Amino acid sequence: MNQMLQDPQVQASEVNQPPVPQEPAPKHPHFAKPQRVAFVQACWHRDVVEEARIAFMREAEARHLTHVDVFEVPGSFEIPLHAQVLAKTRRYTAIVAAGLVVDGGIYRHEFVADTVIKALMDVQLRTEVPVFSAVLTPQQFHETEVHYDFFRRHFAIKGVEVAAACAETLLGLERLRGQVAAGIV
Predict the structure, then answer these.
(1) Are residues 162 and 53 in contact, defined by beta-carbon separation less than 8 angstroms?
(2) Catalytic residues
(3) Alpha helices in the chain (DSSP H)
(4) DSSP class of residue 140?
(5) Residue 52 · residue 159 · CB < 8 Å
(6) Whole-angstrom distance between the N-terminal and C-terminal Cα of the chain?
(7) I need a labelling partner for 8 at 20 to 30 A (CA). Which of 21, 27, 53, 168 fits?
(8) Of 185, 182, 183, nearest to 32 (Cα)?
(9) Spatial separation of the C-alpha atoms in residues 149 and 145, rounded to whole Å
(10) Are 62 and 28 in contact (CB under 8 A)?
(11) How far does Cα 142 stand from its chain's mean position?
(12) Would you give the DSSP letter of residue 144?
């Protein structure tokens, strides 16, 4: 029997190939109680930073973090105050921060990044609400298409990583708090 290929782009050698098995999506544990996460995103270089948010949202949903509220601030320097106010509401079980701190030639960007990270840690320790950072400070960032493309991809990776860290930490804290309440720890 003579059969024509439906897609002229498909080569004859590809037709007889066995299908490549797809790996099943990983099964992530469910939470005992619903978790609500705040995602605070700096708008400076929004087109780069939003890649972290997009990837975070996708991975968070896969990990059963379905209640995520997004907040925008002008730059990374404004993130810690927002994180603190949100933590104090007690509505959120975790806060995620995303921003890009680059050398603008006016001040040392390392100092700004260091200040932001230390302030986020302070919020976390003071409120006992975990705060996760995807606030990145590249050694070199030039406003070229090559750098923009590289950092968009990098922020997407960081979005997945911060979602995993957030979910795993919340699961660990949920277990730990249950053990404390039961007098085990």
Answers:
(1) no
(2) 108
(3) 12-15, 46-62, 79-89, 109-127, 145-181
(4) -
(5) yes
(6) 72
(7) 21
(8) 182
(9) 6
(10) yes
(11) 23
(12) S
